[in-house]
Amino acid sequence: MKSRSFKRPESVLVVVYTDAGEVLMLLRRTPRHFWQSVTGSLEWGESPRRAAVRELWEETGLRAGGHLEDWHHSERFPIVPPWRSRYAPGSRYNREHWFGLRLPTRRTIRLNPAEHTRLRWLPVSRAARLARSWTNRDAILRLQGAGFRTLLR
């Protein structure tokens, strides 16, 4: 087991979207110009679902309720060199678990100012273009053709 003083190299990505086909995008405080969905690392001993619920609350003020969808998909990607010091020596990859939160309509979002400075509700194609990470872009694009009711695998 890795030391708990380091971050766990496992995270969640939660795409928040409405029945009208709008996707919530958040602008990170740093790095600059980095738009993303809700994301965050799993804490030691925490399940991906629990982390998704926690990150939704911390970053947006949204309660997931029974609407959180486990998309049963994950991606592995390299940890960028400037952030590797946060992880145990030898950790080079992160495993990201994908979730969705479907809302009937837009909700009031309470940004965490330590993490994000702005938000936008955008159509799927525009949100995907704005997303800075390839995993976030690919997750958003999974909504196309899903009818915004049920995300199909």
Give the helices and strands, then pairings.
Layout: E1 10-18, E2 22-28, E3 35-36, E4 38-41, H1 48-60, E5 68-78, E6 93-103, E7 116-123, H2 124-130, H3 134-141
Parallel strand pairs: 1-6
Antiparallel strand pairs: 1-4, 2-3, 2-7, 5-6
Helix pairs in contact: 2-3
The overall average pLDDT, rounded, is: 91
**Unreliable spans:** 147-153
| CATH evolutionary superfamily | Nucleoside Triphosphate Pyrophosphohydrolase
Instruction: Classify the beta-strand content into a percent band.
Output: 25-35%
Q: Please list the strands of the largest sheet in the order they lie side by side.
A: 4-1-6-5
Name of the level-1 CATH class: Alpha Beta
Question: What are the key terms here?
Answer:
153 residues; alpha+beta; Nucleoside Triphosphate Pyrophosphohydrolase; 4-stranded mixed beta sheet; 3-stranded antiparallel beta sheet; globular
Characterization of the model:
There is one protein chain. With 153 residues, this protein is an alpha+beta fold. The chain has three helices and seven strands; from the N terminus they run E-E-E-E-H-E-E-E-H-H. The strands form two sheets. A four-stranded mixed beta sheet has the order 4-1-6-5, with helices on both faces. A three-stranded antiparallel beta sheet has the order 3-2-7. Helix 2 runs antiparallel to helix 3. It has a single domain, classed as Nucleoside Triphosphate Pyrophosphohydrolase.
Quick take:
With 153 residues, the protein is of the alpha+beta class.
